[in-house]
Amino acid sequence: MSAYPSIEDHGLIGDLQTAALVATDGTVDWFCAPRFDAPSIFASLLDAERGGHCFIRPADDGYVTRQLYLPDTAILVTRFLSDDGVGEVVDFMPVVGSEPTDRHRLVRLVRVVRGTMAFVGEIQPRFDYGRAAHTLEQVSADGAVFRADGVSLTVHRIGGVVMHGGRRAGAMETSGDGLRITGTLREGDVTGVVLETGGAGPARVSPDEVDALLRETSRYWREWNGRSTYRGRWREMVARSAMTLKLMTYAPSGALIAAPTAGLPEQVGGERNWDYRYTWVRDASLSVHALLGLGYTEEAAAFGVWLMDRVHESVGERSGPLKIMYRVDGTCDLVEESLDHLEGYKRSRPVRIGNGASDQIQLDIYGEALEAIFAAAEAGLELAHAGWAQLTALLDWLCDHWDQPEEGIWETRGGPQRFTYGRVMCWIALDRGIRLARRHGRPAPVDAWTAARDAIYREVMERGWDGARGAFVQHDGTDVLDASLLLMPILGFIAPLDPMWLSTLRAMREELVSDSLVYRYNPSASPDGLSGSEGTFTLCSFFYVDALARSGFLEDAELTFGKMHTYANHLGLYAEEIGLTGEQLGNFPQAFSHLALIRAAIVLDRHLDATQDLVGPTVREAMRRLDEPGDGAGSWRVPGGDGDA
């Protein structure tokens, strides 16, 4: 167990087609190539012995580590501090552009900035999740090549051999079927390696060449970060979240993956270990709001093209015109399998690749997709005629199928239900389609869409509402609460001061909220077909901030948002979930978490900036009623007001 670093003890680097995780001890313990969803080359995060790794660290004990990003970049620096000296490993991946390529470079620059430090490094790849044997070829003073089943990893050494007191800094030798690097550096010395997939034979790389790559990569990220229009209170957190979303975007298609990792557990030792290296229609659609809110229209437009391509390719099967997830290139061969030869992160098994949820029926994806398309149109990114025709067919299908049972947003495996959130998002889909047709003068069966939209609204209000609980519930026939319903006022299904909503918010606060952390639902009360439990869901915590702000609880929202910052890792990154003692759980970093942080920051800024005098005393009094008893149903008379709130 001690062989595994904490999930949060990592930084993310990438080149916009793939990515790697670097632990605070200087180990690259996760790297897939040539794409995010390709088989792994380093995966010691899932099996310390069989997964493969590349580490560089001080040879002697008695040091501490610190890790940071160079400001406004995705260049990661791992620092080692000892009495004798301070050394650094600078990790980055030069951006490769928008054309798919097998050639990816991971630069590991080693330097000493004070005193002296002896380093040791080891390169032990294990191709295809540790299933493919490899050979070690062309070993020389300049590097070597690892080969396995047509895949290669070339090691290029940075700089020449530096001699100090008879010891060579950067000396490379074989170690079994891997490589070992040793040596002592003094202040100003530079060495390291460049790991390249799809390259030729090894060649020595000069420090000047590496410095040029470093400056070029830094310039790219600084210029990209400089395009942000965000000027609010949480610039550093928002900027890091935006860069994290960018790092998880596959540039050739514009698709955003849910996370760059697979198999990391939602509960250590449990079975909730999924592969998130794919593009969920839901996640990526929600990211459009975040990207547009920061001024990144190019990225939002690229995903819009990707999404409409999926609509165009689809047929009206029972599961609908859209799959819930795809690979980054738009294909959907996501057969789920278990890697039984891997022990899993801290023995959390099974380790899964692929994703069996890809064939589930999840009706909410249509609402998220239409909300993204609507937001893009409002920002000036309108659909062409062909796209509108495809969208019309999609909404026609939804009119006929919105009332069927489904698996829901959380991809439960306990059987289909008529989930309230799915109904709400079907309403959103039809509502946004109607608005698009009317605002832009597009031909559409608006009467039929309106009839279906209104029927959905009535069903949610009648069957999604539990009068005894005084709250909207997960699905009809249950009294279980569900944090996904925090989006009801955020997306405009219900007014944020509606008594039914305020009562629901109170019920959620009492049952699902632990300090600032929010659970998705109670698995023991709503069996999801899986054993074990899970942590609080970071996405829901940021949605809670958003909902609080919209409902007028600005002090609570600001405090909750501030507390959530304490759960970020040392670099400002979030996994999918947070455990009882603040540990990160699930795949890391998680796009859902970061896009929700951005949205919450933008909304909270807007409400805090509003003049307090604009909120009248009668409305503030109504807000305070959240803490008072009552079922929340029916009308609610505002003290001193002229009518029902």
Key phrases:
645 residues; alpha+beta; Beta-galactosidase, Chain A, domain 5; 15-stranded antiparallel β-sheet; 15 helices; 32% helix
Please count the beta strands (DSSP E, at least 2 residues each): 30
Number of helices: 15
- How helical, in percent, are the residues? 25-40%
Shape: globular
The N- to C-terminal Cα distance equals 56 Å
User: Biggest sheet, in brief?
Assistant: 15 strands, antiparallel
Question: What percentage of the residues does DSSP assign to strands (E)?
Answer: 15-25%
Report mean pLDDT, rounded to a whole number: 91
Radius of gyration: 26 Å
Give the CATH level 1 class of the domain at 10-224. Answer: Mainly Beta
Stretches with pLDDT under 50, minimum 5 residues: 629-645
Q: Within the CATH hierarchy, at the fold level, what is the topology of the domain at 10-224? A: Beta-galactosidase, Chain A, domain 5
How does the helix and strand content classify structurally?
A: alpha+beta
CATH architecture identity of the domain at 10-224: Distorted Sandwich
Quick synopsis:
With 645 residues, the chain is α+β, with helices and mostly antiparallel strands.
Describe the overall structure:
By secondary structure, the protein is of the alpha+beta class. It contains 15 helices and 30 strands. The chain has a domain at 10-224: Beta-galactosidase, Chain A, domain 5. Helix content is 32%, strand content 22%. Helix 4 (281-293) packs antiparallel against helix 5 and helix 12 runs parallel beside helix 14. The protein is globular, with a radius of gyration of 26 Å.
